[in-house]
Amino acid sequence: MRLSRTWLVGALAFVLALTNAGVLVGVAYNRQPPSDSVLTLTERELGPQWSWMWREGENSGLSLRLQYRTEGVRNPRFADNEDWEAFSPYGAFGPVAWLDRDKLAALGFDVSTPLTAAENEGHYDRLLGRDVLLVLELDGPARAHALQAARDLVARREQEVAGDPEEKGNAQKRLQSAQETLQSEEQERSRLFIVDAGLDEDKLRQRYPDRAHYAICRGNVRPFVLRETGSAKLYGTVTAVRCESINVPQQFRAAVPLDRPSNALTVALARKQEKRPFTVQVAFGKRLEPWIMSAHAGST
């Protein structure tokens, strides 16, 4: 019996050592030069992992969460909402505007079933997601589009204030809300957008050759049926981004001034605190996995 236990412990230790060796080999291969891309990110694109709320008292590690956005689809149900800016389509969830039926087909989904009956809508709800390659764009056309949309919204609200004296009080509130949205877009919100998806890395890189503003990573998408009054449209949604969590090595932790929220209350407070600026160079390697090359406190 003692011999069997000794053999079992030894076998488990061997498997663990072999697994760790495999991980180290994979990391080394991923980081072989040259990097596939290097993005210069800030506190706008990298935030704390909110899972820390369940780890009170744990100080052994630090990881950052990649804060990405997509251009979503405006839902007509909210088109006349006075606080429309609160329903901005530039977020990280829901149907993606460019991920339409044709794009889903190019990614390998069977989209031949028409959305002409409720049971057909259910067909797409039951489809599983597919692993794909995602394109991350830093401070490019997608962000410029979101910024212009916020500016256009302010312009419309200003016209409302000037053109309807009887509703000036309500219009002024809507203008203030739009101005706050614009300020947030200009100074706080992430400039990192998912702008495309594909199955062939070489073709995507040919389409997006700028490696300082475009990174390719692995992810998952699935169909999303946007139901409107009396009709439905087929889009896709991003369900996973494989590079979402980025470990901060010990030598860079002093440069990333993130307070660790320890529970739900401190998380809520941390969300409202002013972010302290930092700049991080994140490289994506041969396996399209990210790591931090350098970091310093303060803005660029």
Topology:
Elements: H1 2-30, E1 37-42, E2 46-48, E3 63-66, E4 70-71, E5 90-91, E6 96-100, H2 101-106, H3 118-125, E7 130-138, H4 141-163, H5 168-187, E8 192-198, H6 201-207, E9 214-228, E10 231-241, E11 245-247, H7 264-272, E12 278-284, E13 290-297
Antiparallel strand pairs: 1-12, 2-3, 3-11, 4-5, 6-10, 7-8, 7-9, 9-10, 12-13
Please give a quick description of this structure.
The protein has 300 residues and is an alpha+beta fold. It is 34% helix and 27% strand. The N and C termini lie far apart (64 Å).
Can you put this structure into words, describing what you see?
There is one protein chain. This protein is an alpha+beta fold and 300 residues long. The protein has two domains: 31-68 and 244-300, no CATH class; 69-140 and 191-242, no CATH class. The chain is 34% helix and 27% strand. The protein has helices at residues 2-30, 101-106, 118-125, 141-163, 168-187, 201-207, 264-272, and strands spanning 37-42, 46-48, 63-66, 70-71, 90-91, 96-100, 130-138, 192-198, 214-228, 231-241, 245-247, 278-284, 290-297. It has a five-stranded antiparallel β-sheet. Strands 1-12-13 form a three-stranded antiparallel β-sheet, with no helix packed on it. α4 runs antiparallel to α5. The relative contact order is 0.21.
